[in-house]
Amino acid sequence: MSWLNRVRNKIPFLPKRETPETLWHKCPECGAMVFLKEYEENLFVCPRCEHHGRIGPRLRFEMLMDPGYTVLPPPQVREDPLKFRDSKRYSDRLKAARQSTGEPDALLNARGAIDGRRAVVGVQDFAFMGGSMGMAVGAAFVAGARDAIANRCPYIIVTAAGGARMQEGILSLMQMPKTTVAIAELREAGLPYIVILTDPTTGGVTASYAMLGDVHIAEPGALIGFAGQRVIESTIREKLPEGFQRAEYLLEHGMVDMVVHRRDLRTRVTLLLDYLAPQQQEAA
Fold first, then answer.
1. Are 134 and 47 in a shared domain?
2. What is the CATH number of the domain that holds 129?
3. What count of other Cβ atoms lies within 10 Å of the Cβ of residue 54?
C-alpha cells in the first residue's frame, strides 16, 4: 500500500470511493468488464459472450416462479456426524458457508406456481461448499419430492454441484440411492420430474438425481459430467474432444434434451408443465 493510501485511510472525513467491484463485473469467460447493473438486468448473463453466471436459490426462485411462492423449511439432520477435520473442522466450514450465503445448506425448496402452473422447485447453491451433496441436501431433495407428491404437482430441480460432500464420507454417497427412491415415488404418483442442469453439475449429483429426470434442460455452456476431463483422459489414455462435457456437446450426443437460454427458461418450463401435467393443472 502506498504512503498516500495509508494516509487517506486514516483520515475519517475523506469520502470512500466506489470500487470497481461495486460498479463492474468481469466476465470469467470473455474477460469483458460489464456494468454491474446491466449484468443483473440481463439475468446475470454476460451481454457480450452470453456466459451464464452462477446464481443462488433466492434469485432463481424469483426468475422462475410467480410472486407469492413459499420457501419450505429445511429438514433437520445431524451435523458433522463423523467429526471430520482436515485443515479446518467441518463444523467451522458449515458455519462459514452459512454466514456467506445466508442459507442453511446447499439445497432449498419452494412451493408455488410457474405462470399459474403449480410446482415445487428445488435449487442447489454452488456458493455453499460447492453445492456439495451431504445429508442435508439429500433430506431436502426427498422433502421437496414428497411435498410435490402431497400437493399433486411436478417437482423441478435446478442442479449446481461439485459432487458428494467429502466431509460426510459414506453418508454423502448414501444420498444417491436415497434421492433415487424419492424419484421413484414421484413416478409411482404419476408426477413429472424435470431437471435443469446449470454450471457446474458434476460427481455424485450427476450420477444420481441430475440424470434421472423425465426431461433434462441445460443452460448454455454448463459443465456437466461425472469425473473431470484430466481424470478421464488419464484413465482411458486418450485425448477427449474439446468441450465434451459442455451442454451443447451433450445435447448433440443425446445426454440432455434441450439447451435453453436463461431468459427463455420460464417459458420453456411452462410449456413442459402443460405437456406433462395437464391433469394436475386442471385440478388446481
1. no
2. 3.90.226.10
3. 16
Sign of CA dihedral 132, 134, 138, 141: negative
Each residue's pLDDT tens digit, 11-61: 454 444 545 567 999 999 999 999 999 999 999 999 999 999 999 999 999
User: The pTM is what?
Assistant: 0.90
For residues 228 and 54, what is the distance between their CA atoms, to the nearest angstrom?
A: 19
Instruction: Tally the domains of the chain.
Output: 2
Domain termination site, one of 34, 51, 68:
51
If asked whether residues 150 and 191 sit together in one domain, one would say: yes
Planar angle of CA 87, 55, 41, nearest 5 degrees: 145
Whether residue 45 is found in the same domain as residue 176: no
How many Cβ atoms are within 10 Å of 2's Cβ, its own excluded?
7
Q: For 238-283, what is each residue's pLDDT tens digit?
A: 999 989 999 999 999 999 999 999 999 999 999 999 999 876 554 4
Note down the domain range covering 39: 9-51
